[in-house]
Design goal:
352 residues; alpha/beta; Rossmann fold; Aminopeptidase; five-stranded parallel beta sheet; 11 helices; 15 strands; 32% helix
Length: 352
């Protein structure tokens, strides 16, 4: 299986966090309510959004004043979980990462103050940029360079939908299974086409914790794998009453030597807690049973992907074998092939 080893460099930037005073705008809001945007700042915000890069704010200001000024400037919708308080900037960035459910090492912080940048860098693995460099911000090596996919262009909107889900969950009074059932979730599993490959490649680059190999694949590599007769490349998507999560999972399975072997399985962190992984594995187990094959899976341990190992174990995989860095897991014959009742499956009825 051709793939790229994980890079030793920091991962792709998923969120740009902006300071406000003398960064996004010229001047200090608390001293002059008529502050104006820095030249090029609004354009950078809109271009980052189109690339699928999330954005937030970490500012030492009054929250109400910040909200009013961003509304006036027509930019408030671009920023997720903005933080305006007198806490240390590193504290604010840590909260933003937690709210977005992403690693702090995927944040990029823009601030005019050398002190604030140094404070953040001393506490978190965050890349920091001087606001004087806004004009060249989009050329930062951590930011995506490929043309945006349809999923990327809707990323902010999907996080806003997630915010409404979380608010609904917090006020839901019943058991968790009833909450999940009330979402009316529909899980789609289908064979990938050439049109899916840009997003599929993007998933391999962006997904770290929920990736069974830690490897990344280019569009061309995925195309070659997809066209091999023994392979099936599947894309997984999810939608519910609050909206469409888009393409959130990828599976590469190969039929070989009496087995249906899962060579790659990954999921977006946005579907954690929805039991999507278990549902996908139950579907693959059904397909293997229909064809008289044993279901097996490759797992290549990284520093962060233990959650995917637990997905396999909870689905009934065991009987580990080791081949260098790759661990082989086999589905136990008596493992249940049941999907969560709160998920409606819409899937291809066969694995090619």
């Amino acid at each position: 299986m051709t793939a790229s080893e994980p890079s030793a460099a920091l991962p792709l930037v998923k969120c740009v966090v902006w300071d406000l005073d003398n960064t996004l705008w010229d001047g200090v809001l608390a001293e002059d309510g008529k502050v104006v945007l820095r030249p090029g700042a609004a354009d950078a915000v809109r271009r980052l959004d189109a690339l699928g890069v999330l954005q937030s704010i970490a500012s030492k200001n009054q929250p109400d004043a910040v909200r009013a000024k961003l509304d006036e400037l027509g930019l408030s919708d671009y920023f997720l979980f903005p933080k305006a308080s007198w806490d240390a900037k590193s504290v604010l960035l840590r909260r933003i990462a937690e709210d977005l459910n992403i690693g702090a090492d995927t944040l990029l912080f823009v601030d005019d103050s050398p002190f604030e940048r140094a404070e953040v860098a001393s506490e978190l693995p965050v890349r920091c940029v001087d606001s004087a460099d806004i004009d060249t911000l989009l050329a930062h090596p951590g930011l995506p360079t490929a043309a945006p996919t349809a999923d990327a262009a809707r990323r902010r909107v999907r996080y806003q939908e997630d915010g409404r889900r979380k608010a609904y969950e917090e006020q839901f009074a019943g058991p968790r299974n009833e909450f999940l059932r009330s979402l009316d979730m529909r899980l789609s599993i289908r064979a990938a086409t050439a049109d899916d490959l840009d997003r599929a490649s993007e998933l391999t680059v962006r997904t770290n914790q929920l990736n069974t190999t830690g490897l990344t694949f280019s569009r061309e590599q995925l195309l070659r794998l997809m066209t091999r007769p023994e392979n099936t490349l599947l894309v997984v998507s999810l939608r519910d009453t609050f909206g469409d999560y888009g393409t959130t999972g990828l599976v590469l399975a190969a039929e070989e030597a009496g087995e249906l072997r899962i060579r790659l399985f990954l999921m977006s962190c946005r579907v954690m807690g929805r039991n999507v992984g278990g549902a996908v594995l139950a579907y693959l187990a059904e397909q293997a049973d229909r064809r008289g094959l044993r279901l097996s899976a490759d797992f290549r341990r990284t520093d962060v992907n233990r959650p995917m190992y637990m997905v396999y174990r909870l689905a009934g995989f065991g009987d580990e074998q080791h081949d260098g860095p790759v661990m082989r897991l086999f589905l136990k014959p008596d493992a249940p092939r049941t999907r969560p009742a709160f998920l409606t499956l819409v899937a291809d009825d066969r694995v090619r």
